[in-house]
């Protein structure tokens, strides 16, 4: 006889607890990313190459995936794998690499505040592509929930946090080229996420092996991008202990998101990213003495309502 708690098998409760822990950890990592980057700054500037960091994150994910394979899935080392299983991950890695580089170049055609506001549109592009390509019909209630996530992101980006010593008025600036680039960015962001989810779910291979393929191409393509960009200085120039924290945390988050896409969906990922606003705000208040504004509380209300609409009892 299987043991149970409140009518649920203990194994199911254990899995639920592990799932919740992963999502909370992911929310914490997403939310702490921007404050960690600020901690890395020297005289207000990022002292290291962002391309180097991306390469190291992909390499760390590859090493973690290999360790998981050797520790828990050793029997898979003898499995015959066709190039048809491996090749799709090259396109996935290419889409991710293209978006990472696009983020850097977009900054030339818009100010950071505009990027923060408009990048929330990737929620809509991801949901549309998720519905279209994975044939997941979303009800009006769920679409309303996702639009509330967009509203939350825009509210927070428009002034959820305020520096008491600086003017509160926010001015947005973007060129026509910038508008085109942000549209392409949102499209590729949604496409890369949905395409990767489709591969992970349609292939019968275990996740540890799929991650190995994905991150191999990730390292390869980002290394090519690094040498192509002719980055000044050494590969590790400007690195500090804070940068290492960013590399390890982002690698861990990447692995968590692959589990989310394999066993849940990109919609769950969107909710995790939106919830990270809370962590970002709390860290910004604690570390940089920023103040919460009415827009922050509007954003939190929108997220709470969105979670209720999407996951709540109908």
UniProtKB/TrEMBL annotation:
Extent of the signal sequence: none
Residue spans crossing the bilayer: 12-33, 45-69, 76-97, 143-162, 174-200, 212-229, 241-260, 267-288, 294-313
GO cellular component: Golgi membrane
Molecular functions per Gene Ontology: pyrimidine nucleotide-sugar transmembrane transporter activity
Topology in membrane: Multi-pass membrane protein
Keyword Heme recorded: no
The keyword Membrane belongs to this UniProt entry's keyword annotation: yes
Keyword list, A-Z: Membrane, Sugar transport, Transmembrane, Transmembrane helix, Transport
NCBIfam families per UniProt: nst (TIGR00803)
Protein name, UniProt field: Solute carrier family 35 member A4
């Amino acid at each position: 006889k299987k043991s149970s708690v409140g009518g649920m098998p203990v194994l199911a409760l254990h899995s639920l607890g592990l799932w919740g822990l992963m999502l909370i950890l992911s929310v914490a990592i997403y939310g702490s990313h921007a404050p960690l980057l600020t901690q890395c700054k020297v005289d207000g500037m990022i002292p290291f190459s962002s391309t180097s960091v991306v390469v190291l994150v992909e390499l760390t994910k590859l090493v973690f995936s290999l360790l998981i394979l050797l520790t828990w899935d050793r029997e898979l080392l003898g499995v015959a794998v066709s190039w048809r299983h491996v090749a799709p991950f090259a396109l996935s890695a290419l889409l991710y690499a293209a978006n990472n580089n696009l983020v850097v170049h977009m900054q030339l055609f818009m100010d950071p505040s505009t990027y923060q506001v408009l990048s929330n549109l990737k929620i809509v592009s991801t949901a549309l592509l998720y519905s279209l390509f994975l044939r997941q019909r979303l009800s009006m209630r769920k679409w309303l929930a996702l639009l509330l996530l967009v509203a939350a992101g825009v509210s927070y980006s428009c002034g959820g946090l305020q520096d008491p010593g600086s003017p509160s008025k926010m001015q947005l600036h973007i060129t026509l080229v910038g508008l085109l680039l942000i549209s392409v960015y949102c499209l590729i962001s949604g496409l890369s996420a949905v395409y990767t989810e489709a591969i992970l779910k349609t292939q019968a291979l275990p996740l540890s092996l799929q991650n190995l393929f994905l991150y191999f191409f990730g390292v390869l393509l980002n290394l090519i991008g690094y040498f192509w960009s002719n980055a000044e200085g050494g590969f590790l120039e400007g690195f500090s202990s804070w940068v290492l924290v960013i590399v390890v945390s982002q690698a861990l988050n990447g692995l968590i998101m692959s589990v989310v896409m394999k066993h849940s969906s990109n919609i769950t990922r969107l909710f995790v990213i939106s919830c990270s606003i809370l962590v970002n705000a709390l860290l910004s208040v604690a570390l940089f003495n920023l103040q919460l504004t009415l827009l922050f509380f509007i954003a939190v209300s929108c997220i709470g309502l969105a979670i209720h609409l999407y996951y709540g009892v109908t």
